[in-house]
Amino acid sequence: MKKAVCIISGGMDSALSAKIAQNKGYEIIALHFNYGQRTEKKELECFRKISKHLNTVEKYEIDLDFFKQIGASALTDSSIDVPTTGIEAGVPITYVPFRNGIFLSIATALAEKHGAEALFIGVVEEDSSGYPDCRNSYIKSMEDSINLGTKEETKLEIKMPLVHLKKSEIVTKSIELHVPLKDTWSCYKEEKEACGVCDSCRLRLNGFKLAGLEDPIEYIKS
């Protein structure tokens, strides 16, 4: 049976991406990174629940503590405040330097180990927060580099099933495919109840609003 390495953050987008991989007939090798992000414990908890739901054949939880040493992001540096006043213009302070490039490199190593044919990543270009490593053109260039730098018999394709979707479409598709949205997490700031005001919460809430649905996770009451 064909195999795919699915990068699963614990968020809605990556959960849907992995579910799509499963529906396409792939055995799922689930991959999660603990990189010193503010909501690391909650994201890991969600990853484990999503992996169980997907009945994954393998599961990896990889620690990348050097991201905190690098800093330069509000997600990994507690001295930098997470913005709560709306979507920033340009590349936001929550961007983690070259995070997806590093994630994809590690995913490639696992794919070679297991003889996987594809990597699935839940990047969203149009409705994202302006991260340069979520662009379709960037991911395709990584695919080319990966296949140049691996064994001759390794032929990997990076699948981005959500890259051109809007958040409301992701919500609707998740419901359609029975993705357990109550077990996903998007908040950049909080782990018990979502803040509702960071960029990621705003995108998520607006997606549910436009889809005409109610978000099943708990938010801090304003």
Q: How does this model look, in words?
A:
There is one protein chain. 38% of the residues lie in helices and 11% in strands. With 222 residues, the chain is an alpha/beta fold. It has a single domain (3-211), classed as HUPs (Rossmann fold). Strands 3-2-1-4-5 form a 5-stranded parallel β-sheet, sandwiched between helices.
Structure characteristics:
222 residues, 5 strands, alpha/beta, 7 helices, single chain
- State the end-to-end distance: 49 Å
The fourth-level CATH homologous superfamily is HUPs
Number of strands: 5
Low-confidence stretches: none
Number of domains: 1
The main β sheet shows up as: 5 strands, parallel
CATH architecture descriptor text: 3-Layer(aba) Sandwich
Tell me the helix content.
25-40%
Radius of gyration: 17 Å
CATH topology: Rossmann fold
- Derived from helix and strand composition plus strand pairing, the structural class reads alpha/beta
The total count of helices amounts to 7
Shape: globular
Strand fraction equals 5-15%
Mean of all residue-level pLDDT scores: 96
CATH class: Alpha Beta
Order of helices and strands: EHEHEHHEHEHH
Q: Outline of this structure?
A:
This protein has helices at 12-23, 40-54, 66-70, 99-114, 136-148, 167-176, 199-211; strands at 3-7, 27-34, 58-63, 118-120, 157-159. The chain has 222 residues and is an alpha/beta fold. The chain starts with a strand and ends in an 11-residue tail after the last helix.
